[in-house]
Fold:
Amino acid sequence: MGSKPQPHSPSVDERTARVLVVDAFAPTGAEALRHLGCDVIHNPHLDADGLAQACADLTPDVLVVRETHVPAAVFAACPTLGLVVRSGAGTETIDVEAANRHGVLVAHCPARGAIAAAELTWGLILAADRQIPAQTADLHAGQWRHGPYATASGLAGRTLGIIGLGPVGQEVARRGLAFGMHVIAWSRHITEARCDALGIDLCANLVNLAKLSDVVSVNVPQSAETADMVGEKFFAAMRPGAILVNTSRVGALDEAALLRAVRSKGIRVASDSWDDAPDAPEGTFAGPLGREPGVIGTHGIAACTEQAMGAIGDEVVRIVSAWINDFDMPGCVNIAQSTGASTVLCVRHLNVPGVFAQVFGVLGNAKINVEEMDNIIYEGGHAAVARMQLSRRPSAEDLAALRACNAVLAVNVNTLRGPRA
Structure:
């Protein structure tokens, strides 16, 4: 038996766009989405286990998440879904491959929480240098210990090494210069020009950065490329007693190797990211690094300020508005940068209905796929030219059939020189 026909799923232009918002979200952002004409459903308590069923029941066009994971089941359960926006930087919590298979765009909001993350980074640097948490704990315990705490190294004139010179790393660098530090940086995509513009120095490799730095700040995205990027060799090269601050997402540090460095050479650690942190907002923490005496940290709150949440909310609204009104795709991460196209076909035609039906009919019969295309209208609107990137070159017979189509003025074909920029 064949599969049961699926009911028609209304498109965005046939109904009010429905936006399902999961996790914390700025109230101003939700209100702005409503002003766009969206039907906004905000369920901050929905978890990953119930997300697929909620999407099946509510049939959203847009899903907005922050920390909640979006598994493949969500895309299979919700044929109306056209856009998933992560209200933060990175898309590691979303099954992007499943989104690709179902034709769903995935976007995020990079840089909107950069200032908040940099501010926390500097809070942790200062707390580690001046032992602020330990001093506070002693005061709470009724102890006054001026002597042990009057030996901080200080920061002015010392070297700050930054790993990752993206939006957060750049903000950390600016604040490091304001503290009078010598700032050096290493990044996978670093350039001399970028460092010169910030007034900092480029470091050739990670090990050299470890050797030169009194304070190290790790500010990289979560990806396969950054997994355990900072590990045993790096910690072995660090100066005894140096400070390492991590406000990246989970995975950039080899925590077991770092714990050994803390115990063997007195590396001082301050982190917002922990391998063993609970997935839920509240729970029990048992990570050995975070519980090591002298290690200080926060609870995954790097970009969690009212200012950052407001900026992220504004960016979500911009992305959703562009998608609903113009089918534009700002912030999207799963648009192919190149395709399997080998040929460019240019079809000049009269600007009348039915031309593309004929052209696509010829190409379809020849088993030639249109990988990408645009259609440019000439001044006055009487004629146009369609540029198509094809999976293979049409035969002479195919080209003759294209030229015979009604309202087609001319057909030209060339080998594609390379992927689009």
In short: Residues 1-13 have pLDDT under 50 and may be disordered. Residues 343-415 form a domain with the Alpha-Beta Plaits fold (CATH 3.30.70.260). The CA atoms of residues 169 and 219 lie 6 Å apart.
